[in-house]
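Sequence in, structure out. First:
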Amino acid sequence: SPPRANLYSMDAMVDSAMESMSHGKMEMTGMKNTMRPAAPYNLLRSPHKTNFKASLPRREIELRLTGDMKRYIWSFNGKTLKEESMIKVKKGEIVRFKLINDTMMHHPLHLHGHFFRIINKHGDYAPLKHTVDVPPMGQRIIEFEANEEKDWFFHCHLLYHMDAGMARVVSYKEQGASHQPSVDPKLLNPVFFLGEGCWDGSRC
């Protein structure tokens, strides 16, 4: 049984980031991993093989999770949904997303219409999910078979992060080079009201 998640402990966040970075082959020295990850994906193992046929073409896409708390903008690779709306895929290929979180926030990422493999220590028996949490300063690797058609939304499931730009449309190339997905205008031009305050009620 996976241990109970402790989402409100900074130690747990640091441990989770270290665990995911270690799995991503990034070396850490001088720090001890106490193995209390917020999302313990290494403990999950599929009861049957989930690996894909070796003959299928493969492609890796790096997506850095980026954002700005001051202006409240969230994005992939420094670009919001309005600035870059599509991730194009070709039907029949295996698409691997390397998700690198450059922020100090959790980002649970959800892909509509597909189950993906979360790459962990179980190899061919990696678990299938449609949402994966990427911890602060950590990373995850997921892969899926492009076996659908048309357009599917990929976004942060913290919906205020999605509304602020952390989203893409996974779009099948077979729709043609000129195809543009239909996106809710509110997601392209979000409106936010930001303010500052003081805890003690005094002037800041």
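Second:
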Amino acid sequence: MKKRLFSCIVLAVWAFGLLNGCKHDPIIVDPFIPNSSWELIQHNIFEPKCVACHSPNSRFAQESDLILNKETGYENLLNRKPFNSAAENEGLWLLRKEGIKSLEESFLWEKINAPNAEHFYQDHPHYGEMMPLGGPFLTNGELAYIKEWIIQGAPKTGWVADDSLLLDHSQVELPQTAAKPLDPPPQGIQFHMGPFRIKPGTERELFYYEPLENEEAIYISGFEISMKIGSHHFLMHRYPGDKPESRVYRDLYRNNGRYVLSTLRQMKDRIYIFGSQYRFADYFYPPGVALKFPANDGIDFNTHYVNFGEEDMIGEAWVNLHTLAKEKVMYEAENLFINNKDFKLPPKKITTISNTHIFEDEVQLILLFSHAHKRNTEFRIYLEGGPRDGELIYFSRDWQHPPMIDFNPPIILKGGTGLRGEAVYSNMTNKTIKFGTSEDDEMMIMSGTIFRN
């Protein structure tokens, strides 16, 4: 059962005021107590922040063809196409009841998800403005609550989201086009990569190895990334054997587009740590979980920039590693990197590729995301085996900005069960596409994090 902390707090405060007779100036508390997650969203979020514009006879409601009042708000959202033609042409719905898949297809979510504002404005310039118009935007707690409600099927009745999420009143600041230097972590290490130059009409993939200079093992509890616009991805890897040369940029491609073979060979020996296709990303493991780095280890930073413009582009990135004292570590995190290299995409066809990974022992899954290139149109990950066999737990329709889905509580995968990925590709070229690292090749990678009891 989902916690109903917020409703209980409202009821307790209201009752306290009645019982104590309001001896001084009365505290006016709304006595309305929601009976479901939807009623809470409608009354505590939409009505104070959205209904002023999305009300009958409002010009804004007419422009968006959306009224969000309590009488018809739910029905006006559910199973309706957006009034925005660009969003409709791209297959979005205002809201559907298909779980996690609906989150990626929801125009409502696109319009209110302020942490994703840069992607919204850069990649969807015809979607209009983020909402509420002119701000302030919804709090991170309100967004987390709505997100959980959508993932749980967006029901009109019943409690499916945790009210305690609403206690987070912080709000995101919209990102700028320039890289934003991170504040150094209170306990941890900060790294800086760049600046480096990307010429017009080219792509540049770089590697840069930084030794940690740690005489003893250290434990990483979280990551933060901030990088300049134009990056396709930013990844971090370890090398269990021979290390690359320290603090030297290593290009993957020569000026003629051919591989630098020495760099390509080194990629075979690396172990994935963490990465993102968003310019600003952070992730923290659950309390007591941390990723171990052995003594005298290091990190190889990998960024891939694409410059479609007519002027030089400057790339740059900051990375924070948050550390945890050894005595506070209860479980060691392990990173998943499930890579399918054996596939072909025939020309002029839509092709679905699958890949299954079975765990030998019991693991707890806490993070999952995907990686593919520009011909990928959908990426799904299902549970394989066990009582939840076939359940969809991950969905992406945006290869450039695939979601990072964290599971709290973790998904327990018994030995003999696992993950099955399905990726759909549209290859309308005249050639067969295979696995590769360039923008014209394709990939099918399931990434994430697990830990074991």
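Remark: Residues 241 and 269 are 8 Å apart (CA to CA).
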